[in-house]
TrEMBL record:
Region described as Disordered: 154-184
Domain DCUN1: 1-123
GO molecular function: cullin family protein binding; ubiquitin conjugating enzyme binding; ubiquitin-like protein binding
Ranges annotated as spanning the membrane: none
Ranges of compositional bias, category Low complexity: 154-173
Protein name, as recorded: Defective in cullin neddylation protein
GO biological process: protein neddylation
Gene name linked to the record: CG7427_1
Amino acid sequence: MADLGVDSVDKLKAKLPQLEMELNDIAKFKDFYQFTFNYAKDPGQKGIDLNMAIVYWKIVLSSRFKFLDLWCRFLEEKHKRSIPKDTWNLLLDFATHIDDNMSNYDSEGAWPVLIDDFVEWCHENHLMATQPHQPQQQHHQLLQQQLANYQPQIQSMQVQQQQQQRNISSSYQPTSHSANINYG
């Protein structure tokens, strides 16, 4: 938050309109979206914990992915593992290119298996109903509400990550070796 020049959730909320304007640029949003992967994942892990990924997606993709609620439901029901970086990154491409009934989805394309499984699950369950896009004002209000709702959960997860890092660091004790070794 310091990089944004804010030091509280209230100041962050006040800055949201300016940030939203910047994120309307597709390239900037993609950079931001990809940044959130490394920000959200536990240090030393390759993927994001599923629950953390869902929280971040609900914040970041709320108005950009018409199937977000279905995606999250699918993951909670069918997928219990972490989310790898390629799935994280390609979900944004999927979200921006898929049509309302998913008829333009190419199962032979280079999509991660998890996205293939999601599309198949939606078709099997006839779940391609779309959610209407919200006007900018409604979207801004929704972002503020979601930020307030998810802030405690994000902070709790970040505290857990920090505690895990401290536990790992404190459990690692380098062994001392004799300095009188002859390599000779």
